Amino acid sequence: xxxxxxxxxxxxxxxxxxxxxESLPEHVREGARNTPSVFVEPDIxxxxxxxxxxxxxxxxxxxxxxxxxxxxxxxxxxxxxxxALADAPAxxxxxxxxxxxxxxxxxxxxxxxxxxxxxxxGSEKWCQGYSEPGAGSDLASLxxxxxxxxDSYRINGSKIWTTHAHFADWxxxxxxxxPDVKPQEGxxxxxxxxxxxxxxxxxxxxxxxxxxxxQVFMDDAQTHAQYRIGAEGQGWSIAKFLLENERGxxxxxxxxxxxxxxxxxxxxxxxxxxNGAYGHLPSVEARLVALELEAQALETTELRILAELKAGRRxxxxxxxxxxxxxSLRQKIDELAVDIFGPLGLQLPPERPLYxxxxxxxxxxxxxxxxxxxxxxxxxxTIFGGTNEVQKTIIAKTVLGL
Length: 402
Ligand SMILES: Cc1cc2nc3c(=O)[nH]c(=O)nc-3n(C[C@H](O)[C@H](O)[C@H](O)COP(=O)(O)OP(=O)(O)OC[C@H]3O[C@@H](n4cnc5c(N)ncnc54)[C@H](O)[C@@H]3O)c2cc1C
Fold this sequence. Notes:
- The chain is built from twelve helices and eight strands.
- It is globular and about 75 Å long.
- Helices cover 47% and strands 14% of the residues.
- The longest helix is centred in the last third of the chain and has 29 residues, at 282-310.
- By secondary structure, the chain is an alpha+beta fold.
- The strands form two sheets. It has a four-stranded mixed beta sheet with strand order 1-4-5-8.
- Bound molecules: flavin-adenine dinucleotide.
- Flavin-adenine dinucleotide is lined by residues 127-131, 136-137, 161-163, 213, 380, 383-384, 386-387, 389-390, 393.
Protein backbone atom coordinates (compact mmCIF):
# COMPACT_ATOMS: atom_id res chain seq x y z
CA UNK A 1 0.00 0.00 0.00
CA UNK A 2 1.29 3.44 -0.98
CA UNK A 3 1.23 5.60 2.16
CA UNK A 4 2.95 8.84 1.13
CA UNK A 5 0.98 12.03 0.70
CA UNK A 6 0.89 13.54 -2.82
CA UNK A 7 2.42 17.01 -3.45
CA UNK A 8 -1.14 18.45 -3.46
CA UNK A 9 -1.87 16.82 -0.11
CA UNK A 10 1.39 18.17 1.34
CA UNK A 11 0.47 21.66 0.12
CA UNK A 12 -2.93 21.27 1.75
CA UNK A 13 -1.22 20.27 4.99
CA UNK A 14 0.83 23.47 4.89
CA UNK A 15 -2.35 25.49 4.37
CA UNK A 16 -3.97 23.83 7.41
CA UNK A 17 -0.86 24.40 9.53
CA UNK A 18 -0.74 28.07 8.60
CA UNK A 19 -4.43 28.51 9.42
CA UNK A 20 -4.07 26.84 12.81
CA UNK A 21 -0.98 28.87 13.67
CA GLU A 22 -2.82 32.09 12.86
CA SER A 23 -6.40 31.40 13.93
CA LEU A 24 -6.45 29.03 16.89
CA PRO A 25 -6.37 31.33 19.96
CA GLU A 26 -3.95 30.39 22.73
CA HIS A 27 -6.66 30.45 25.44
CA VAL A 28 -8.71 27.98 23.38
CA ARG A 29 -5.69 25.66 23.05
CA GLU A 30 -5.16 26.02 26.76
CA GLY A 31 -8.79 25.11 27.47
CA ALA A 32 -8.46 22.03 25.26
CA ARG A 33 -5.25 20.96 27.01
CA ASN A 34 -6.98 21.23 30.37
CA THR A 35 -10.02 19.16 29.36
CA PRO A 36 -9.94 15.60 30.69
CA SER A 37 -13.15 14.54 28.91
CA VAL A 38 -13.92 13.30 25.43
CA PHE A 39 -15.03 16.61 24.02
CA VAL A 40 -14.85 20.14 25.29
CA GLU A 41 -17.73 22.06 26.85
CA PRO A 42 -19.38 24.98 25.01
CA ASP A 43 -17.37 27.66 26.86
CA ILE A 44 -14.28 26.38 25.04
CA UNK A 45 -15.79 24.75 21.96
CA UNK A 46 -18.16 27.49 20.78
CA UNK A 47 -15.40 29.98 19.96
CA UNK A 48 -13.43 27.44 17.96
CA UNK A 49 -16.61 26.27 16.21
CA UNK A 50 -17.34 29.88 15.16
CA UNK A 51 -13.80 30.38 13.84
CA UNK A 52 -14.01 27.18 11.79
CA UNK A 53 -17.49 28.10 10.57
CA UNK A 54 -16.32 31.52 9.39
CA UNK A 55 -13.40 29.90 7.58
CA UNK A 56 -15.85 27.40 5.96
CA UNK A 57 -13.97 24.44 7.45
CA UNK A 58 -16.36 23.38 10.20
CA UNK A 59 -18.35 20.72 8.33
CA UNK A 60 -15.31 19.35 6.54
CA UNK A 61 -16.80 15.86 6.37
CA UNK A 62 -20.20 16.90 4.97
CA UNK A 63 -20.92 16.76 1.22
CA UNK A 64 -20.67 20.11 -0.56
CA UNK A 65 -24.40 20.40 -1.30
CA UNK A 66 -25.11 20.13 2.44
CA UNK A 67 -22.64 22.91 3.29
CA UNK A 68 -19.43 20.85 3.56
CA UNK A 69 -15.97 21.53 2.16
CA UNK A 70 -15.89 18.76 -0.43
CA UNK A 71 -12.56 17.57 0.98
CA UNK A 72 -11.73 13.97 0.22
CA UNK A 73 -11.10 11.52 3.08
CA UNK A 74 -7.32 12.06 3.00
CA UNK A 75 -7.73 15.82 3.33
CA UNK A 76 -10.08 15.26 6.26
CA UNK A 77 -7.51 13.04 7.88
CA UNK A 78 -4.75 15.60 7.40
CA UNK A 79 -7.00 18.27 8.92
CA UNK A 80 -7.81 16.13 11.98
CA UNK A 81 -4.17 15.22 12.45
CA UNK A 82 -3.00 18.83 12.30
CA UNK A 83 -5.78 19.88 14.71
CA ALA A 84 -4.65 17.19 17.16
CA LEU A 85 -1.00 18.27 16.88
CA ALA A 86 -2.01 21.92 17.46
CA ASP A 87 -4.12 21.13 20.59
CA ALA A 88 -7.32 22.27 18.89
CA PRO A 89 -10.40 21.39 20.96
CA ALA A 90 -12.25 18.18 20.14
CA UNK A 91 -15.70 19.61 19.37
CA UNK A 92 -18.87 17.78 20.33
CA UNK A 93 -19.70 15.24 17.64
CA UNK A 94 -23.39 15.05 18.53
CA UNK A 95 -24.67 17.60 16.03
CA UNK A 96 -21.88 17.88 13.51
CA UNK A 97 -20.87 14.25 13.10
CA UNK A 98 -23.78 12.17 14.36
CA UNK A 99 -27.15 13.69 13.58
CA UNK A 100 -26.10 15.90 10.63
CA UNK A 101 -25.17 12.94 8.37
CA UNK A 102 -28.54 11.36 9.25
CA UNK A 103 -30.35 14.57 8.30
CA UNK A 104 -28.51 15.13 5.02
CA UNK A 105 -28.81 11.45 4.08
CA UNK A 106 -32.38 10.61 5.16
CA UNK A 107 -34.00 14.00 5.79
CA UNK A 108 -36.52 15.86 3.62
CA UNK A 109 -35.46 19.16 1.96
CA UNK A 110 -37.46 20.99 4.67
CA UNK A 111 -35.66 19.11 7.46
CA UNK A 112 -32.26 19.85 5.90
CA UNK A 113 -33.12 23.55 5.60
CA UNK A 114 -34.48 23.67 9.16
CA UNK A 115 -31.65 21.91 10.99
CA UNK A 116 -28.33 21.92 9.11
CA UNK A 117 -27.67 25.70 9.09
CA UNK A 118 -28.28 25.85 12.87
CA UNK A 119 -25.88 22.97 13.51
CA UNK A 120 -23.30 24.82 11.45
CA UNK A 121 -23.63 28.21 13.10
CA GLY A 122 -23.78 26.58 16.54
CA SER A 123 -27.13 28.15 17.44
CA GLU A 124 -28.63 24.72 18.23
CA LYS A 125 -26.93 21.96 20.20
CA TRP A 126 -27.81 18.28 20.25
CA CYS A 127 -27.86 15.21 22.44
CA GLN A 128 -28.29 11.52 21.68
CA GLY A 129 -31.31 9.69 23.12
CA TYR A 130 -30.52 6.05 22.43
CA SER A 131 -29.67 4.29 25.74
CA GLU A 132 -32.26 3.64 28.42
CA PRO A 133 -32.15 2.02 31.83
CA GLY A 134 -32.39 -1.60 30.67
CA ALA A 135 -31.51 -0.93 27.02
CA GLY A 136 -27.83 -0.26 26.36
CA SER A 137 -26.05 -3.06 24.52
CA ASP A 138 -29.45 -4.56 23.81
CA LEU A 139 -30.64 -1.29 22.31
CA ALA A 140 -33.50 -2.88 20.35
CA SER A 141 -35.29 -3.61 23.63
CA LEU A 142 -35.82 0.12 24.26
CA UNK A 143 -39.16 1.00 25.83
CA UNK A 144 -39.62 4.73 25.27
CA UNK A 145 -43.00 4.95 23.60
CA UNK A 146 -44.11 7.49 20.98
CA UNK A 147 -47.72 7.71 19.83
CA UNK A 148 -48.89 9.82 16.91
CA UNK A 149 -51.79 12.02 18.02
CA UNK A 150 -52.96 14.34 15.28
CA ASP A 151 -49.84 15.87 13.80
CA SER A 152 -47.60 15.36 16.86
CA TYR A 153 -45.93 12.48 18.65
CA ARG A 154 -46.51 12.15 22.39
CA ILE A 155 -43.44 10.55 24.01
CA ASN A 156 -43.08 8.79 27.36
CA GLY A 157 -40.01 7.08 28.74
CA SER A 158 -36.51 7.76 29.96
CA LYS A 159 -33.08 8.01 28.35
CA ILE A 160 -29.87 7.65 30.30
CA TRP A 161 -26.17 8.56 29.97
CA THR A 162 -27.32 11.39 27.72
CA THR A 163 -24.12 13.36 27.11
CA HIS A 164 -24.50 17.16 27.21
CA ALA A 165 -28.32 16.96 27.46
CA HIS A 166 -28.03 19.98 29.76
CA PHE A 167 -26.63 22.05 26.87
CA ALA A 168 -28.89 20.61 24.18
CA ASP A 169 -31.72 22.28 22.28
CA TRP A 170 -32.66 19.04 20.49
CA UNK A 171 -32.40 15.32 21.08
CA UNK A 172 -32.25 12.70 18.33
CA UNK A 173 -34.29 9.99 19.93
CA UNK A 174 -35.15 6.38 19.27
CA UNK A 175 -38.71 5.60 20.32
CA UNK A 176 -41.02 2.64 19.93
CA UNK A 177 -43.99 3.47 17.73
CA UNK A 178 -45.18 -0.11 17.22
CA PRO A 179 -44.91 -2.66 20.04
CA ASP A 180 -46.59 -5.43 18.03
CA VAL A 181 -43.80 -6.23 15.56
CA LYS A 182 -40.21 -7.52 15.90
CA PRO A 183 -38.37 -5.13 18.30
CA GLN A 184 -36.13 -3.71 15.55
CA GLU A 185 -39.09 -3.05 13.25
CA GLY A 186 -41.12 -0.96 15.72
CA UNK A 187 -38.54 1.80 16.30
CA UNK A 188 -38.74 5.34 14.88
CA UNK A 189 -36.09 8.10 14.73
CA UNK A 190 -37.48 11.37 16.10
CA UNK A 191 -35.99 14.82 16.61
CA UNK A 192 -37.34 16.15 19.89
CA UNK A 193 -37.07 19.73 21.22
CA UNK A 194 -35.44 19.64 24.67
CA UNK A 195 -36.80 22.88 26.06
CA UNK A 196 -40.39 21.87 26.86
CA UNK A 197 -42.36 21.07 30.00
CA UNK A 198 -42.53 17.31 29.24
CA UNK A 199 -38.75 16.95 29.60
CA UNK A 200 -36.79 16.79 32.86
CA UNK A 201 -33.00 16.49 32.93
CA UNK A 202 -31.30 14.97 35.96
CA UNK A 203 -27.50 15.27 36.13
CA UNK A 204 -25.33 12.18 36.69
CA UNK A 205 -21.97 13.07 38.24
CA UNK A 206 -19.30 10.62 37.12
CA UNK A 207 -16.50 9.01 39.09
CA UNK A 208 -14.21 11.73 37.72
CA UNK A 209 -16.45 14.39 39.31
CA UNK A 210 -17.68 15.72 35.95
CA UNK A 211 -21.18 16.62 34.90
CA UNK A 212 -21.20 15.33 31.34
CA UNK A 213 -24.03 12.81 31.34
CA UNK A 214 -27.64 12.90 32.45
CA GLN A 215 -30.84 10.97 32.76
CA VAL A 216 -33.64 12.49 30.69
CA PHE A 217 -37.27 11.86 31.58
CA MET A 218 -39.99 12.31 28.98
CA ASP A 219 -43.49 12.64 30.41
CA ASP A 220 -45.89 13.45 27.59
CA ALA A 221 -43.07 15.22 25.76
CA GLN A 222 -44.05 16.22 22.25
CA THR A 223 -42.55 16.62 18.85
CA HIS A 224 -44.19 17.48 15.56
CA ALA A 225 -44.53 14.66 13.03
CA GLN A 226 -42.55 16.77 10.56
CA TYR A 227 -39.51 16.11 12.77
CA ARG A 228 -39.60 12.35 12.21
CA ILE A 229 -36.64 11.22 10.09
CA GLY A 230 -37.57 8.57 7.53
CA ALA A 231 -40.68 6.46 7.87
CA GLU A 232 -42.20 5.02 11.03
CA GLY A 233 -40.35 1.78 11.81
CA GLN A 234 -37.22 2.82 9.86
CA GLY A 235 -35.48 3.99 13.04
CA TRP A 236 -33.33 0.90 13.53
CA SER A 237 -31.56 1.11 10.17
CA ILE A 238 -31.04 4.87 10.64
CA ALA A 239 -29.72 4.21 14.16
CA LYS A 240 -27.19 1.70 12.81
CA PHE A 241 -26.06 4.13 10.09
CA LEU A 242 -25.39 6.70 12.83
CA LEU A 243 -23.55 4.19 15.05
CA GLU A 244 -21.21 3.29 12.19
CA ASN A 245 -20.22 6.96 12.02
CA GLU A 246 -19.93 7.14 15.82
CA ARG A 247 -17.62 4.13 15.96
CA GLY A 248 -15.28 4.75 13.09
CA UNK A 249 -16.19 7.98 11.35
CA UNK A 250 -13.56 10.06 13.04
CA UNK A 251 -9.82 9.66 12.95
CA UNK A 252 -8.69 8.43 16.34
CA UNK A 253 -5.00 7.71 15.73
CA UNK A 254 -3.76 11.31 15.23
CA UNK A 255 -4.99 12.42 18.65
CA UNK A 256 -3.66 9.26 20.30
CA UNK A 257 -0.25 9.74 18.65
CA UNK A 258 -0.18 13.40 19.67
CA UNK A 259 -1.03 12.43 23.27
CA UNK A 260 1.77 9.85 23.34
CA UNK A 261 4.25 12.52 22.20
CA UNK A 262 2.95 14.86 24.93
CA UNK A 263 3.21 12.15 27.54
CA UNK A 264 6.77 11.38 26.50
CA UNK A 265 7.76 15.06 26.68
CA UNK A 266 6.17 15.45 30.11
CA UNK A 267 7.81 12.24 31.39
CA UNK A 268 11.19 13.41 30.08
CA UNK A 269 10.78 16.66 31.99
CA UNK A 270 9.67 15.11 35.27
CA UNK A 271 12.49 13.84 37.49
CA UNK A 272 11.92 10.45 39.11
CA UNK A 273 13.17 9.68 42.59
CA UNK A 274 15.33 6.82 41.35
CA ASN A 275 16.96 7.36 38.03
CA GLY A 276 16.80 10.75 36.28
CA ALA A 277 13.60 11.62 34.40
CA TYR A 278 10.61 9.28 34.24
CA GLY A 279 10.84 9.17 30.45
CA HIS A 280 14.30 7.62 30.76
CA LEU A 281 13.24 4.73 32.97
CA PRO A 282 13.39 1.55 30.84
CA SER A 283 9.95 0.39 32.00
CA VAL A 284 8.34 3.70 31.00
CA GLU A 285 10.26 3.91 27.73
CA ALA A 286 9.21 0.36 26.79
CA ARG A 287 5.53 1.15 27.40
CA LEU A 288 5.74 4.39 25.43
CA VAL A 289 7.29 2.62 22.45
CA ALA A 290 4.68 -0.16 22.59
CA LEU A 291 1.87 2.42 22.64
CA GLU A 292 3.42 4.31 19.76
CA LEU A 293 3.63 1.15 17.64
CA GLU A 294 0.00 0.29 18.37
CA ALA A 295 -1.12 3.82 17.49
CA GLN A 296 0.87 3.73 14.24
CA ALA A 297 -0.76 0.40 13.34
CA LEU A 298 -4.16 1.93 14.07
CA GLU A 299 -3.30 4.90 11.87
CA THR A 300 -2.47 2.51 9.03
CA THR A 301 -5.85 0.83 9.45
CA GLU A 302 -7.61 4.18 9.49
CA LEU A 303 -5.79 5.24 6.32
CA ARG A 304 -6.87 1.97 4.71
CA ILE A 305 -10.48 2.74 5.64
CA LEU A 306 -10.03 6.22 4.16
CA ALA A 307 -8.85 4.64 0.90
CA GLU A 308 -12.08 2.58 0.90
CA LEU A 309 -14.12 5.71 1.48
CA LYS A 310 -12.23 7.58 -1.25
CA ALA A 311 -13.11 4.75 -3.63
CA GLY A 312 -16.78 5.25 -2.72
CA ARG A 313 -17.17 2.18 -0.49
CA ARG A 314 -18.62 2.31 3.03
CA UNK A 315 -16.33 0.71 5.62
CA UNK A 316 -19.28 -0.89 7.46
CA UNK A 317 -18.43 -3.11 10.43
CA UNK A 318 -14.68 -2.45 10.09
CA UNK A 319 -15.46 0.65 12.10
CA UNK A 320 -16.02 -1.67 15.08
CA UNK A 321 -12.37 -2.66 14.78
CA UNK A 322 -11.27 0.97 14.98
CA UNK A 323 -13.56 1.59 17.98
CA UNK A 324 -12.22 -1.48 19.76
CA UNK A 325 -8.52 -0.73 19.20
CA UNK A 326 -8.68 3.03 19.66
CA UNK A 327 -10.67 2.90 22.91
CA SER A 328 -8.34 0.30 24.44
CA LEU A 329 -5.33 2.33 23.37
CA ARG A 330 -6.83 5.51 24.82
CA GLN A 331 -7.14 3.78 28.17
CA LYS A 332 -3.59 2.37 28.05
CA ILE A 333 -2.16 5.86 27.43
CA ASP A 334 -4.15 7.27 30.33
CA GLU A 335 -3.09 4.37 32.57
CA LEU A 336 0.57 5.04 31.83
CA ALA A 337 0.05 8.73 32.66
CA VAL A 338 -1.41 7.74 36.03
CA ASP A 339 1.45 5.34 36.69
CA ILE A 340 3.92 8.14 36.02
CA PHE A 341 2.15 11.22 37.40
CA GLY A 342 -0.81 10.03 39.45
CA PRO A 343 0.86 10.19 42.87
CA LEU A 344 2.31 13.62 42.04
CA GLY A 345 -1.20 14.87 41.23
CA LEU A 346 -2.39 13.76 44.65
CA GLN A 347 0.28 15.72 46.53
CA LEU A 348 -1.23 18.37 48.78
CA PRO A 349 0.49 21.19 50.61
CA PRO A 350 0.92 19.97 54.20
CA GLU A 351 -0.72 23.02 55.80
CA ARG A 352 -3.96 22.62 53.81
CA PRO A 353 -6.69 20.16 54.80
CA LEU A 354 -7.79 17.52 52.28
CA TYR A 355 -11.46 18.37 52.85
CA UNK A 356 -13.13 21.56 53.98
CA UNK A 357 -13.93 25.00 52.70
CA UNK A 358 -10.45 25.87 51.47
CA UNK A 359 -9.74 23.93 48.31
CA UNK A 360 -6.18 22.65 48.11
CA UNK A 361 -3.78 24.52 45.86
CA UNK A 362 -2.79 22.44 42.87
CA UNK A 363 0.70 20.98 43.13
CA UNK A 364 2.79 19.57 40.32
CA UNK A 365 2.65 19.94 36.56
CA UNK A 366 -0.46 20.05 34.38
CA UNK A 367 0.14 16.40 33.51
CA UNK A 368 0.18 15.50 37.19
CA UNK A 369 -3.05 17.39 37.83
CA UNK A 370 -4.86 15.93 34.84
CA UNK A 371 -3.62 12.33 34.92
CA UNK A 372 -6.16 10.97 37.40
CA UNK A 373 -9.27 12.86 36.15
CA UNK A 374 -8.41 11.88 32.58
CA UNK A 375 -7.86 8.25 33.57
CA UNK A 376 -11.20 8.12 35.40
CA UNK A 377 -12.99 9.84 32.54
CA UNK A 378 -11.52 7.51 29.95
CA UNK A 379 -13.06 4.42 31.61
CA UNK A 380 -16.06 5.36 29.47
CA UNK A 381 -14.28 4.90 26.12
CA THR A 382 -14.82 1.15 26.11
CA ILE A 383 -18.51 1.61 26.98
CA PHE A 384 -20.08 4.43 24.94
CA GLY A 385 -20.89 3.92 21.28
CA GLY A 386 -21.25 0.21 22.09
CA THR A 387 -19.06 -1.69 24.57
CA ASN A 388 -15.88 -3.48 23.54
CA GLU A 389 -17.54 -6.85 24.14
CA VAL A 390 -20.28 -5.87 21.72
CA GLN A 391 -17.71 -4.69 19.13
CA LYS A 392 -15.96 -8.07 19.40
CA THR A 393 -19.23 -9.86 18.66
CA ILE A 394 -19.84 -7.62 15.62
CA ILE A 395 -16.29 -8.28 14.36
CA ALA A 396 -16.65 -12.03 14.92
CA LYS A 397 -19.97 -12.21 13.09
CA THR A 398 -19.74 -9.67 10.31
CA VAL A 399 -16.02 -9.16 9.63
CA LEU A 400 -14.63 -12.64 10.34
CA GLY A 401 -17.85 -14.48 9.41
CA LEU A 402 -17.69 -16.74 12.48
C1 LIG B 1 -19.67 8.52 29.47
C2 LIG B 1 -20.79 7.90 28.70
C3 LIG B 1 -21.49 8.66 27.79
C4 LIG B 1 -22.56 8.11 27.11
N1 LIG B 1 -23.28 8.93 26.26
C5 LIG B 1 -24.41 8.45 25.71
C6 LIG B 1 -25.26 9.31 24.95
O1 LIG B 1 -24.98 10.52 24.78
N2 LIG B 1 -26.40 8.81 24.45
C7 LIG B 1 -26.75 7.50 24.58
O2 LIG B 1 -27.78 7.09 24.07
N3 LIG B 1 -25.97 6.64 25.32
C8 LIG B 1 -24.82 7.10 25.87
N4 LIG B 1 -24.04 6.26 26.63
C9 LIG B 1 -24.53 4.90 26.90
C10 LIG B 1 -23.74 3.78 26.26
O3 LIG B 1 -23.99 3.71 24.88
C11 LIG B 1 -24.13 2.49 27.01
O4 LIG B 1 -23.65 2.63 28.33
C12 LIG B 1 -23.56 1.27 26.36
O5 LIG B 1 -24.22 1.00 25.15
C13 LIG B 1 -23.67 0.04 27.29
O6 LIG B 1 -24.95 -0.13 27.75
P1 LIG B 1 -25.24 -0.33 29.33
O7 LIG B 1 -24.57 0.76 30.06
O8 LIG B 1 -26.72 -0.47 29.46
O9 LIG B 1 -24.51 -1.68 29.73
P2 LIG B 1 -25.03 -3.16 29.46
O10 LIG B 1 -25.53 -3.28 28.06
O11 LIG B 1 -25.95 -3.56 30.55
O12 LIG B 1 -23.67 -3.97 29.57
C14 LIG B 1 -23.10 -4.31 30.85
C15 LIG B 1 -21.90 -5.23 30.58
O13 LIG B 1 -22.35 -6.44 29.94
C16 LIG B 1 -21.65 -6.64 28.72
N5 LIG B 1 -22.57 -7.19 27.71
C17 LIG B 1 -23.83 -6.78 27.44
N6 LIG B 1 -24.35 -7.51 26.44
C18 LIG B 1 -23.38 -8.37 26.04
C19 LIG B 1 -23.32 -9.39 25.03
N7 LIG B 1 -24.34 -9.62 24.21
N8 LIG B 1 -22.17 -10.08 24.92
C20 LIG B 1 -21.10 -9.84 25.74
N9 LIG B 1 -21.12 -8.90 26.72
C21 LIG B 1 -22.24 -8.18 26.87
C22 LIG B 1 -21.21 -5.26 28.28
O14 LIG B 1 -20.08 -5.34 27.43
C23 LIG B 1 -20.88 -4.60 29.62
O15 LIG B 1 -19.59 -4.98 30.03
C24 LIG B 1 -22.93 6.76 27.30
C25 LIG B 1 -22.20 5.97 28.20
C26 LIG B 1 -21.16 6.52 28.90
C27 LIG B 1 -20.43 5.66 29.89
